[in-house]
Design a protein that fits this description.
Blueprint (H helix, E strand, L loop, with lengths): L3 E6 L2 E6 L9 H15 L6 E5 L23 H9 L4 E6 L6 H8 L2 E4 L4 E2 L14 H9 L1 H10 L3 E2 H7 L4 E2 L5 H14 L17 H18 L5 H13 L3 H17 L1 H15 L5 H4 L7 E5 L3 H12 L3 E5 L3 H20 L5 H8 L2 E4 L10 E4 L5 H14 L5 E4 L6 H5 L8 E6 L8 E5 L6 H13 L3 E5 L7 H17 L4 H11 L5 H8 L1 H11 L12 H7 L12 E2 L8 E2 L1 H14 L8 H21 L6 H11 L9 H8 L1 H14 L1 H4 L3 H8 L9
This protein binds (2S,3S)-3-hydroxy-2-methylbutanoyl-COA.
The site of (2S,3S)-3-hydroxy-2-methylbutanoyl-COA has 26 residues, from helix 3 and helix 11.
């Protein structure tokens, strides 16, 4: 069935593209479009052509699945030039999300009508590329250089009204019936004597060269800081800036060259992997037959950092929240924190006062557990102690409705054990939020042995409501994220005791593209958290396991990081960002002497290799145990919860890009020094033996 069809309605030709689910511009769509345009260009009875894609959305851009493969002719840019050069009026009738190549096709049309729900954008930068079908040249001609660059550098979706005011679209229709709107508009243009209006010839918004060069200077300055690791944002600015000095065809071929450079960059690979990984994470077995229960009213146990954050995430999702705290003082403290957060949002114009009042009306707090008897879901966020959690779940087991879902926000405790105090454990699940829970996107959904598919489906439904990025995890100590974190943390302590400087390690991790270094993260989370974990694990530590005491020495001094203004770094008003705590190196020296270790020099590569090897090592173990169902889920966890750069795809994708054989070689080398900590994972050996990679498991 052709994906592009057309029909003639008197002097108007209607083109309809149909390529579900989002009318992506695949090779078949490009071929169909070009053939149709060429056929209609010869039909003199046709005065206007209307381009539509009636289903879910107007063309949502090039087919991303085709990237990385040879892009078959015709290329979209040529089709856009063909559309623009037609001597017939061309109308693009928009709805949904005309993005990337979809908006480029629309901008090559002479007139654009949009349904009220339309949002337009050129989000190619989020895929590590640039708008390669004329977008960097036509958009500035429609809305000016500053707005065009803002749209292309952020990838934001611009609502219809704003697009109309900016000149990107010409009319907003009254309803969403894209075919009728297009035909009516074309008839009106013909009747009113309008002519073809090539966007490429619109120069008025790109003529004030002084104003433009001033804004380009500012934009480049900001970009040099904001996108210091990234390739495509700078290519976008280059295409716009250089294009202004060239004639249109030259500017288009310059854009094409820069597009090809982006396509070759590994960042494109990483970002496109992240795009699909963040759509594959919801494809979990339980959702095949799981039926979510309707979630409207939820209960939050605990008003601490996590309890207040989760409450706000729920309130922002329109859910009614009752928080349980032990006493009125704790309730006041939680209310004050929540109120202050929304006041700040009002101050920053993120919401207005009415919206704040409406959101706050979704919240109430009490010390009385009985108020929870009508709730659909309870999320427990009390102190990380098994006995306390069991006590809470025993109470909930008595009070809550039989089909109320009981979730724990534990970040490492055994959810199966918590479920043993509930008559029907099928309604128990782990919902591991990340702090601050009202901001962080990641949500680990921890499926226990007896958790039902309906309970899992309800958890994924909650994630969607809260606009979270959910990842399914099985039950183990630390689930996916914290388990891998603890592996590379311990491996890092080994490196520091062997001679590496914690500050050098952090610099290497930051230069790699991570938001923060490992010791910065410890200081942010609080060194006392890790200390409690080390003490909890001490009785189970094997006598032959290497144990580095440096972090204990730091904690024994009460240096827990930001919360004590001193940790691995120093904090305070007049203290520069990332000021190392000079006493840390002293402690490292003392501990090396105590352990009888002669320090050795570490170069950047050694530090990075060990960091990546530790993540891949534990990631492979987690896959073997089916704690994570596929490698891309591990990537989604680290790019959404642990500051791993999305343009590197995630630790498992990055491993594929540098070669699993190299990672295995490193692990084999490390296992000679420490066979207990680095015994090569069988799955990794098998993949290398079969010349396969992690992607083959996705
Ligand atoms: N190509 C291929 N598949 C796509 C796709 C695309 N452009 N967009 C979405 N999908 C798939 C997606 O993987 C999922 O599949 C299903 O459609 C629903 O998507 C020349 C080079 C349009 C706002 O960057 O932002 O044009 O998981 O779950 O939440 O200059 O998808 O069901 O199998 O995200 O309603 C530029 C990317 C391309 C837009 C809809 N365009 N897409 O969101 O659904 S580069 C984009 C989106 C380009 C030109 C350049 C969103 C959406 P599955 P979904 P949604």
């Amino acid at each position: 069935m052709s994906v592009v069809k057309h029909r003639i309605l008197d002097e108007i030709a209607l083109i309809e593209v149909s390529n579900p689910p989002v009318n992506a511009i695949s090779a078949a769509v490009r071929i169909g479009l070009l053939e149709t345009i060429e056929e209609l260009s010869l039909d003199e009875k046709i005065l206007a052509i209307v381009i539509t894609a009636p289903e879910r959305t107007f063309l949502a851009g090039a087919d991303i699945k085709e990237f990385g493969k040879k892009i078959d002719a015709p290329i979209l840019g040529n089709i856009c030039d063909k559309i623009e050069s037609l001597n017939k009026i061309v109308v693009a009738s928009l709805h949904g999300t005309p993005l990337g190549g979809g908006l480029e096709v629309a901008m090559s049309a002479h007139y654009r009508i949009a349904a009220p729900n339309t949002k337009v954008g050129l989000p190619e930068v989020l895929l590590g590329i640039l708008p390669g079908a004329g977008g960097t040249q036509r958009l500035p001609r429609l809305c000016g250089v500053s707005m065009a660059l803002d749209m292309m550098l952020t990838g934001k979706h611009v609502p219809a009204k704003k697009a109309l005011d900016a000149g990107i679209i010409d009319v907003i229709s009254k309803n969403n019936s894209t075919i009728d709107n297009g035909i009516e508009y074309a008839k009106k243009l013909i009747k009113d004597g309008f002519k073809p209006r090539p966007t490429s010839q619109m120069e008025n918004k790109i003529s004030d060269t002084q104003e433009i060069s001033n804004s380009l200077i500012k934009i480049k300055e900001t970009a040099s800081k904001k996108y210091k690791n990234l390739f495509s944002p700078h290519a976008i600015i280059k295409s716009v800036e250089e294009g202004l000095k060239l004639n249109f065809p030259e500017a288009i071929s310059n854009e094409r060259e820069l597009f090809e450079e982006c396509i070759q960059s590994p960042q494109r690979q990483g970002l496109i992997h992240s795009f699909f990984a963040e759509r594959a994470n919801t494809k979990v077995p339980e959702l095949k037959d799981g039926k979510p229960i309707e979630l409207k009213k939820i209960g939050i146990i605990g008003g601490g950092t996590m309890g207040t954050g989760i409450s706000m995430a729920a309130m922002n999702a329109g859910l009614d929240v009752i928080m349980i705290e032990q006493n009125d003082e704790a309730i006041e403290k939680a209310k004050t924190k929540i109120n202050a957060t929304y006041d700040r949002n009002v101050k920053l114009n993120r919401i207005n006062n009415e919206q704040k009042l409406e959101i706050m009306s979704m919240f109430s707090a009490t010390t009385d557990f009985n108020e929870l008897k009508d709730r659909d879901l309870i999320i427990e966020a009390v102190f990380e102690n098994m006995d306390i959690k069991k006590e809470v779940f025993s109470k909930l087991n008595q009070i809550c409705r039989k089909n109320c879902i009981l979730a724990t926000n534990t970040s490492y405790l055994n959810v199966n054990e918590i479920a043993t105090v509930v008559d029907d454990p099928s309604r128990v699940i782990g919902l591991h939020f990340f702090s601050p829970a009202n901001i962080m996107k990641l949500l680990e959904i921890v499926v226990a042995e007896k958790t039902s598919t309906d309970t899992v489906a309800s958890a994924f439904d909650l994630a969607k409501k809260m606009r979270k990025v959910p990842v399914r995890s099985g039950v183990c100590d630390g689930f996916i994220g914290n388990r891998i974190l603890s592996k590379y943390l311990v491996s890092t302590y080994h490196m520091v005791e062997d001679g590496a400087s914690p500050f050098h390690v952090d610099k290497v991790i930051r230069d790699f593209g991570c938001a923060m270094g490992i010791f910065q993260v410890i200081d942010l989370a609080g060194g006392d958290i890790g200390w409690a974990t080390r003490k909890r694990k001490a009785p189970f530590r094997h006598k032959d396991d290497r144990y580095v005491q440096i972090p204990d020495r730091v904690c024994e001094r009460g240096w827990f990081g930001q919360k004590t203004s001193k940790g691995y770094y120093l904090y305070g008003e007049n203290v520069d960002f990332l000021t190392p705590n000079p006493e840390i190196e002293v402690i490292c020296e003392q501990e090396r002497k105590r352990a009888g270790i002669t320090p050795k020099k570490f170069d950047d590569k050694e530090i990075l290799d060990k960091y990546i090897a530790a993540m891949v090592y534990e990631g492979t173990k987690i896959l073997s145990e089916q704690i994570a169902l596929k490698p891309s889920d591990i990537d989604v966890v680290f790019t959404n919860g642990y500051g791993f750069p999305k343009w590197r795809g995630g630790p498992m994708k990055y491993a594929d890009m540098i070669g699993l054989d190299k990672i295995l070689k490193n692990i084999q080398k490390y296992s000679e020094e420490d066979p207990r900590f680095w015994s090569p994972p069988k799955l990794l050996e098998d993949l290398v033996k079969q010349n396969k990679n992690f992607d083959s498991l996705n």
